[in-house]
Amino acid sequence: MSTKAKGLTYEAYLALPETKQRYEIVDGVLLMPPAPTPSHQWFMLEIAVRLRSFVNERDLGVVLAAPVDLLIRREPLRTRQPDILYLSAERTGIRGPAELRGLQFLEISPDLVVEVLSPSNTRREIESKLEDYRQISVRECWLVSPEAETIEVLRLSAEGATTAGIFAVDGTLRSEVLGDFTLPIREIFR
Predict the structure, then answer these.
(1) 167 and 150 in contact (C-beta within 8 Å)?
(2) Which of 27, 33, 97, 165 is the most exposed place for a label (fewest CB within 10 A)?
(3) To the nearest whole number, what is the mean pLDDT of the chain?
């Protein structure tokens, strides 16, 4: 006779202590990958600083960097921690720290998520994250490939994910979600 171990429940998740360790919960299973590499963090910060500056100058909302739990669903429990996320004030009402105070995690769909890829990421992992983001109505996802020195911009909708563009070192990323935001890719992969 076999018994299946019960995964982490939403109630047990709420009781977890605050941690700086990155993790995601997939169908109740706590996944704790190794810490990101220094170069991963460098790319993430380069993008986050540019996004945050643009968003703050225009009072468009907030940009947050990992680790921040994004609740995908409660049963079976699933969370994600994108490297960067943008919450528009127009869509979420969040303009700054006052609206974030007291939140243990986000149940609000970001307009944009950014994932900096690692060599260990599998296509299946990326597709699973994209599906989760699509399920909660994230509008746009950027897949940053330090190895290829590209950023792929994906539009997410109920129908699936479509590539809006793959921007290489000589290109300039444009975001539908952020209107007139542009990002010269050379600045990221210099």
Answers:
(1) yes
(2) 97
(3) 90
Q: Are 73 and 109 in contact (CB under 8 A)?
A: no
- At 39, is the secondary structure helix, strand, or coil? helix
Helices (H), 74-158: 89-92, 97-100, 123-135
Cβ atoms of 117 and 146 closer than 8 Å: yes
Q: Are 185 and 169 in contact (CB under 8 A)?
A: yes
| E-state strands within the chain | 24-26, 29-31, 61-65, 70-73, 78-80, 84-88, 112-116, 140-145, 150-157, 160-167, 172-174, 182-184
Residues 6+ apart with CB under 8 A from 144: 43, 44, 47, 83, 114, 115, 116, 117, 150, 151, 188
C-alpha angle 164-24-30 in degrees, rounded to nearest 5: 150
Q: Are 178 and 60 in contact (CB under 8 A)?
A: yes
CA distance 190 to 184: 10
The pLDDT tens digits for 60-90 are 999 999 999 999 999 999 999 999 999 999 9
pTM score, whole prediction? 0.89
End-to-end CA distance of the chain: 58
Tally of residues, the chain: 190
For residues 185 and 173, is the Cβ–Cβ distance under 8 A? yes
